[in-house]
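[Automated response] Your request has been received and processed.

Submitted sequence:
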Amino acid sequence: MPASTVIPVLAYPNVRQAAAWLCDAFGFTVRVRIADHRVQLNAGDGAVVVAERQPGGGECSAWVMMRVADVDRHFDHARARGARIIREPADQPYGERQYTVEDVGGHQWTFSQSIADVAPEEWGGESGQL
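Generated structure:
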């Protein structure tokens, strides 16, 4: 298993096609393929698992957030590769610049770049254990 603490698992009807699209559009790399039903992808210092959609399992949906070094550059690359734009890059009051897209399987991804160190209490949040 990847060393990441959080590993989203996203189901697709065609695992290899989805993994190839994610690598091309978002810059991920393949960590390991498991037959035709599962691919582990390196995503920065984290990981994403692409799994086969199970018959009768209903619609699998997920929302994934991932930190990137340059949101605008990442956005331009993903848009050029056909990612459906849900929300254009924008600065958020909590110190992040983010955009959201939908991938080929209908999953939404929010990519985030830290632009300021803002205490949660300054934007209506509450500090927790770091």
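Summary generated for your ticket: The CA atoms of residues 89 and 126 lie 25 Å apart. The radius of gyration is 16 Å.
If you did not submit this request, please reply to this message.
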